[in-house]
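Contributing new records

If you add data, match the layout below exactly. Sequence lines come first and carry their own label; structure lines follow with theirs. Keep one chain per record. Anything else will be rejected by the validation script.
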Amino acid sequence: MVKRRTSLTDVARAAGVGLATASRALTGSAEVGAATRARILETAAELGYRPSSTAQALRTGRTRLIELVVTGRLSQPVVTGLFEACEDRGFHLLLTRQSAPGEGMVARPVVDGRILLDPAPGQEEHPSEEPCAVLRTGGLDEAGLAATARSMADTLIDRVEGVRV
């Protein structure tokens, strides 16, 4: 039997508070007293509660996903640099591949930003509303690839979060 995921309702019930109070406590709202917040946080930890990323995405309009669109060869330093930058900023890295000409339209995942890795000529344009960047890897050694990828991810996440760059 598969155990179902602990919900916010479960936490609220176990802590003896309303759903709104539990939600406010877990998001750090100042409207919840310190003792109540501590009780709710302790209950959430005991129950193994993790916020639903889907619910958060619906509420905020953000997925906290950065898509890496791979068009050819993928190198470990690029993945490492992008992954570390995303992880440091609370984002996840999603790897997808560019569809080849003639494959038809492939549905793109809902993401906050995209990085096109070494796109072929004519594929640099990306008709989407989210921020998009192009990463070209030619002529860079492994250290340069990792540093460039990390810097690009940081800049893209700044754009996603509305930070002036």
